[in-house]
Amino acid sequence: MLPLPAPKDSGTVIVAMSGGVDSAVAALLLRDAGFDVQALFMSNWDDDDAYCTAAADFQDARRVCEALKIPLHRHSFAAEYRERVFAHFLREYAAGRTPNPDVLCNREIKFGVCLDYMHRLGASYIATGHYARLRRAGSGVQLVKAVDTAKDQSYFLHQVAPAALRKTLFPIGGLRKAEVRKRAHAAGLTVFDKPDSTGICFIGERPFEEFLSRYLHQAAGPIETADGAVVGEHRGLALYTLGQRAGLRIGGRAGAAAAPWYVAAKQPDRNALIVVQDQEHPLLLSDAFDVEDVHWLAEVQASSPAAAAPGSARLDFECAVKTRYRQSDLPCRVSVDESTAHVVLRAAARAVTPGQYAVFYEGDACLGGGVIARRSNSRAPAARATYNSLFSVEGS
């Protein structure tokens, strides 16, 4: 079922066409429902190398638009992407945090400068191939999880401004991925079996260490246990993330158990990487964390327990949170003070990572979210002193 408005009232709808099957079927559904559909292919990375798929993706988008008999526009937002998304991405990695550029790309590019550009082309609405839904009531809109919960992308959309969501359509949010591919195949669209894109947003799937080293100096440093014993050497803190097991290159150590090692913390001030051997080690677990620069979706906020405007008195409410994509909802209690939220989890979670986004939900409705700044584990008193000393610099 397609979202409102009705085709006769919608004006021109421009689909953000990526060259993949999801945006292709979004355009197909809108066209078949009677919408006046055009498409826009955006390129946001200007390096022409073996890992950049923009040229091939554009040809796929062109073939889809020819099959659907809809116009295709093309525009580069590479300069805006580097300034608004990639520069932040590099700053976060340089500070020892692990950012998520896809969230910023949606806010700043797809539903920011790109939406403005589509309006200049005469569009009344933008449509994308995101797996998410919108509930509309009067002039308001609520961001909701997709029917296919395994593909739901509301996590990546929580920073989009409500004003932009009001001008957005998510045609495939009510479909499962298998049905999307089935509809593309039935319509004769050549991308029906095209693999999903992976890797860094708009940059493609490429060797991460090689790519990051082009922009950030990576200094080797010690890999240490929580007790300070050196067990190896890392190749640069930016190349590792909390909970990581692969790629540590730590062999058997005398006096150590024959068990895998996991990244438990980064200490940028000493350029040290802290590892542990138990994937449920207290240093890997968090039962509380702080979230900064919280963006609440106003229409949701008005009818939720977080109903006061930013800057009001402290609020406390219960909801669910995701600290990474494709994670199960974690029950929690949230205390809100202006643009900061303190989150207490009902059960400790593994690898809560500063720099990533925490996104809040009430049922299937997305309340908003922000950046994880600090984490703690109050339920591990024996490790508390060590824990606090190790993670005191994570959110700095």
Can you walk me through this structure?
- With 396 residues, the protein is α/β, with parallel strands linked by helices.
- Helices cover 26% and strands 29% of the residues.
- It contains eleven helices and 17 strands.
- It has helices at 7-10, 21-32, 54-68, 78-94, 101-120, 154-157, 162-165, 177-186, 208-213, 298-301, 384-391, and strands spanning 12-16, 36-43, 72-76, 123-127, 132-137, 140-145, 168-169, 221-225, 230-234, 262-267, 272-276, 285-296, 315-322, 330-337, 340-350, 357-362, 365-376.
- The strands form four sheets. It has a six-stranded antiparallel β-barrel. Strands 3-2-1-4-7 form a five-stranded parallel beta sheet, sandwiched between helices. A four-stranded mixed beta sheet has the order 9-8-11-10, with no helix packed on it.
- Strand 16 and strand 17 form a beta hairpin.
- Mean pLDDT is 86; it is low at 299-313.
The total strand number stands at 17
Radius of gyration: 22 Å
The string of secondary-structure elements, in order, is HEHEHEHHEEEHHEHHEEEEEHEEEEEH
What share of the residues lie within helices?
25-40%
- Intertermini distance: 46 Å
User: Proportion of β residues?
Assistant: 25-35%
Helix/strand/pairing class, anyone? alpha/beta
Task: Describe the structure using short key phrases.
five-stranded parallel β-sheet, single chain, 29% strand, alpha/beta, six-stranded antiparallel barrel, 396 residues, 26% helix
